[in-house]
Amino acid sequence: MSIHSFPANPAGLHMTGTTWQHRLDAARTPEDVIAASRDYLAGFDPFELQALPPDCRAPAKIVDVDDVSSYAFELVRHECAERDETGELVHRLARFFSHASMRLAQLTARETGIEARGRESA
Predict the structure, then answer these.
(1) Would you list the domain boundaries of the chain?
(2) If we measure between CA atoms, which residue out of 36, 35, 38, 50 comes closest to residue 1?
């Protein structure tokens, strides 16, 4: 377990869970959500993340929407199936990545709607 009560962002500022959720809500593009996801994971001690069950370990790199959504799915699936000594960390990760996945769906739907309206007016 990390000695930090909350993950830190790259600038060294500590952010509460609520602030991370606000950062996701404020994201204007999928890239913003992906960057927030990377920053969130960067705030955890590598040993803490390595202690997670294999199915709950973060991908080596989060580079696209599929990485975020797939990781959210794996975390929630594990959280629902098992409770072990890493349960609290899995729950925190699942909550963040589920929210990130929902925000990506919202942004993608908005982009798809904008593209569709653009084709109709052309």
Answers:
(1) 22-121
(2) 50
Q: What is the predicted pLDDT for the residue at 1?
A: 38
The whole-angstrom separation of Cα 88 and Cα 92 is 6
Whole-model pTM: value is 0.73
Query: 92-116 burial string, b = 16+ CB within 10 Å, else e?
Result: bbbbbbbbbbebbeebeeeeeeeee
Report H helices in 3-86: 17-26, 30-42, 46-50, 65-81
What is the CA 80 to chain-centroid distance, rounded?
Answer: 18
List the end-to-end C-alpha distance of the chain, in Å, as a whole number.
Answer: 56
DSSP code, position 51 = T
